[in-house]
Amino acid sequence: MPARTGAQFLEQLKDGREIWLNGERVEDVTKHPAFSGTAQSLAQLYDLQYEFPDVMLMESPDTGDLVGVTHLIPKSREDLDRIYRAIKLWAEQSGGLLGRSPDYLNVTFACFASRPDVWGRRGNERGAENIVQYQKFIREEDLCLTHCIINPQVDRSAPEAAQGAGEVSLHKVGETQDSIIVSGARMLATLAPFADEVAVYPGSSLRPEDSRYALAFAIPMNTPGLKFICRDSFSKARNVFDYPLSSRFDEMDAVAIFDRVEIPKDRVFLDGDTVSYNEVITDTNWRSYIVFQAMTRALTKLEFAFGLGHAIADTTGVNAYDHVQEKLGEIWSMVELTRSALVSAKAGAFEVPGTQGVYCPDERPLVALRATMPKWMGRAVELLKLVGGGGYMLTPSYQDMQGPMRSYIDRFYQAKNTGAERRIRLFRLAWDFLGSDLGGRNDLYEKFYLSDSFRMTALNYLLADKSQGQRLVDRFLAEPVSVESLEPIS
Ligand SMILES: Cc1cc2nc3c(=O)[nH]c(=O)nc-3n(C[C@H](O)[C@H](O)[C@H](O)COP(=O)(O)OP(=O)(O)OC[C@H]3O[C@@H](n4cnc5c(N)ncnc54)[C@H](O)[C@@H]3O)c2cc1C
């Protein structure tokens, strides 16, 4: 089947999935006020594939149909560039706010399917074949996936088996001839209400004795026994004038609960092998691919933040001051360093040994950026606050704009270079970026969506090639120090 349109995407969401919000089961996410805005935004991403087919679509290697470019298993730097452009075009539709747009898992599964040799280790040939077939399936059907790779927070200092008597973390509870049966929960599944399928794969390490937790699989969202409990909606269900971002880009985060869910064996990628569970993420180079996707989106978000800062400073005239210029220059520097790291990751891409010409971006600039980005995102928000000052509170609502105070608003909310309405829309947009419920959630997202940045930064130290620094230090330490060279005491 060729790439889907937005209408096809929306139609397939009406599948009886179990989504819970505020104590109620949501019957139809495309109609529910908490979800319909984001459902429409995602539908627009699917439609965009046909508006920009040269960027977004490619010929399927199996069927010849036009399918999404982000499913491509890269075989050259040019392929990486194609993938980059498709990710970027989608990211620009939300200013980088949709962290889990479908390309996130398209890129993930293209990476996984490129390494059946890794998945197939220790006799898991069937799991490896399943993941190769599954990647083709989601590419041909143009499916949207959510994923949940982390077990719930009960006691982070204890292993999975010790959390809530071993019953909380997702685990295997049985097996039939054709399926395995799983129970437990995973936090969090962003985009769950809007996804067609949920994927489970390793997100942390397991002890050898915890094999029942060593699972990787993917199933449809409407699989019996699968339930999702959402956090509060931040969409506000208000006019886009009031919340231009929350009303459209609340991608929602939900806890996934598996109550004796049957996973068909042709959808199981790993079952019980703790060694593979601890190896596949590293050995498939997933980190390189996913950070390449994530930093392309982050670049867009920083560009958006810079655009907001510039527009605000220009609107109120504060960009005449050098310390405001310095703050905006700081955001611009983040943009440029992010862009440069992506260029560097592409330039340093290499053919992965032992594969049929699969290309992998250079991990070093990407993981360096990954460690830094959560700090930059938080800093960009702080800088925007300092540039905009109390202007974020000069933000009457759509209802105010329609009401009897409008003539006062037009007079007292004007700005240096624009009228009241445009100024208010700009500041409301920026506030939705940095100060609304969604703004707060997005700050948390940037800090934790790929594990926490503290441990990622520590990991960079452990992974770092220390030889060059060590060599420079050793040159001095190897120098003989003679007693004569010391100054005599006089
Ligand atoms: C908005 C949002 C959306 C997300 N979406 C998804 C999703 O769709 N799919 C998905 O799989 N994941 C998702 N995640 C990521 C995931 O759910 C976790 O947030 C992430 O793995 C970090 O774990 P945690 O939140 O339990 O934090 P914790 O691991 O509990 O960390 C809390 C603090 O304790 C410290 N800490 C914890 N353990 C250790 C340790 N062993 N050593 C040292 N310090 C430690 C951390 O550094 C941190 O400061 C999302 C996260 C957020 C915030």
Automatic annotation (TrEMBL):
HpaB/PvcC/4-BUDH C-terminal domain location is: 279-477
Which terms does the record give in the GO molecular function aspect? monooxygenase activity; oxidoreductase activity, acting on the CH-CH group of donors
Q: Which residues bind FAD?
A: H147, C148, I149, Q153, V154, D155, R156, T190, D452, S453, F454, R455
Q: Which UniProt keywords apply?
A: FAD, Flavoprotein, Monooxygenase, Oxidoreductase
Could you name the domain of life of the organism this protein comes from?
Bacteria
Which stretches make up the HpaB/PvcC/4-BUDH N-terminal domain?
Answer: 5-270
Q: Which InterPro entries match?
A: Acyl-CoA_Oxase/DH_mid-dom_sf (IPR046373), AcylCo_DH-like_C (IPR036250), AcylCoA_DH/oxidase_NM_dom_sf (IPR009100), HpaB/PvcC/4-BUDH (IPR004925), HpaB/PvcC/4-BUDH_C (IPR024719), HpaB/PvcC/4-BUDH_N (IPR024674)
**Record Gene3D superfamilies:** 4-hydroxybutyryl-coa dehydratase, domain 1, Butyryl-CoA Dehydrogenase, subunit A, domain 2, Butyryl-CoA Dehydrogenase, subunit A, domain 3
The protein here is known as 4-hydroxyphenylacetate 3-monooxygenase oxygenase subunit
Origin organism is Kyrpidia spormannii
